[in-house]
Design goal:
Length: 323
């Protein structure tokens, strides 16, 4: 066969491949660009912050440069009770702002206008720190037309004078979620290699809950969809099981709660000391667990309570926040 035939065939293959990639990547991008951020999408990006992957401000994925999700029970300025309590997204000074704030077009029609005009998000300054809230429009509804008001971002530092220090000063440690740093742990530890955050529109509904909508991902980076499902989907796991005690046992050694689990241990995320500041003796714990597994003792050893600044606290905060 002459070279001319090879050349024609390779060009045809290139054309077919390019067309398939256009259909796969380019066309869906039009839908993504036209999508409107849902309340779930706003919560996700405000909780996780700018990026949960590799970044110059956090080169070793230690969970740095991340906001805090805080349950606010009292007005930081007046001290008056807020009933019901609301969540605020606290960005201490120097913390990178979320994508929806730096690129407001990502929020979509309606949400962008409300967030900029009424929410004053463009006045947020990274160097000073900022507190965000999620508010609801009095006039506009979500695109589904189900009577739910359209959600948007509000810069509470500009609209109400709330500062990160004011909010954190009144918050109990149990009201502070390090879910943004926890997502970095989720990515770094490879949790998305075995778990998805994407229930399918099949019988998954009955087990894992409803699948997400397109607007749930506006401004989120990365989406952490997952590449395989060796374990259960985790998108709504915080609604199915919000027990921190169970999560603590599961992460320290999954076999404590599921004897045949193939999930690896994540006990090293506890660090060197427990909540009391005592050194954790991992070798002793594992030896005692082996005795329990072999039937030489009737109960497993106690799992140490994690320190409040440990990496496992961040990861558990992220998982229980998945609702």
């Amino acid at each position: 066969m002459k070279f001319r035939e090879y050349k024609i065939g390779s060009r045809m293959f290139g054309l077919a491949f390019g067309l398939s990639m256009s259909i796969t990547l380019l066309f869906p991008s039009f839908d993504l660009a036209a999508s409107v951020a849902s309340e779930v999408g706003l919560d996700k990006q405000l909780t996780s912050g700018w990026d949960s992957g590799w970044q110059l401000s956090d080169p070793f994925l230690d969970g740095l440069n991340k906001p805090l999700k805080v349950l606010v029970r009292k007005d930081p300025k007046s001290g008056k009770p807020i009933e019901p309590a609301i969540y605020a997204y606290v960005y201490p000074a120097g913390t990178s702002l979320p994508n929806g704030v730096t690129h407001t077009a990502n929020l979509g029609k309606g949400v962008e206008e409300l967030s900029v005009k009424d929410g004053r998000i463009t006045e947020a300054k990274k160097k000073d720190g900022v507190v965000f809230l999620i508010k609801h429009s009095k006039d506009l509804e979500t695109f589904e037309g189900n009577g739910h008001p359209l959600a948007y971002m509000e810069n509470a530092t500009a609209t109400m004078g709330w500062t990160p220090d004011d909010v954190l000063k009144l918050a109990a440690d149990t009201d502070v979620l390090h879910a943004g740093s926890g997502k970095t742990m989720f990515v770094r530890e490879g949790c998305w290699w075995c778990h998805t955050l994407l229930p399918e529109q099949t019988q998954d509904w009955q087990v894992f809950g409803a699948p997400p909508m397109l607007g749930d991902f506006n401004g989120e980076s990365p989406t952490a969809f997952g590449s395989d499902r060796k374990g259960p989907d985790l998108l709504h796991v915080g609604s199915r099981n919000g027990s921190r005690e169970w999560m603590m046992l599961h992460f320290f050694n999954p076999r404590l709660v599921q004897p045949h689990s193939i999930m690896p241990r994540f006990d090293y995320l506890w660090g060197k000391v427990d909540a009391k500041g005592d050194k954790i003796d991992y070798a002793k714990w594992r030896a005692e667990y082996d005795e329990y597994r072999e039937g030489k003792r009737t109960t497993p050893p106690d799992v140490p309570m994690y320190a409040k600044n440990s990496e496992i606290r961040n990861l558990i905060d992220f998982v229980v926040n998945l609702k």
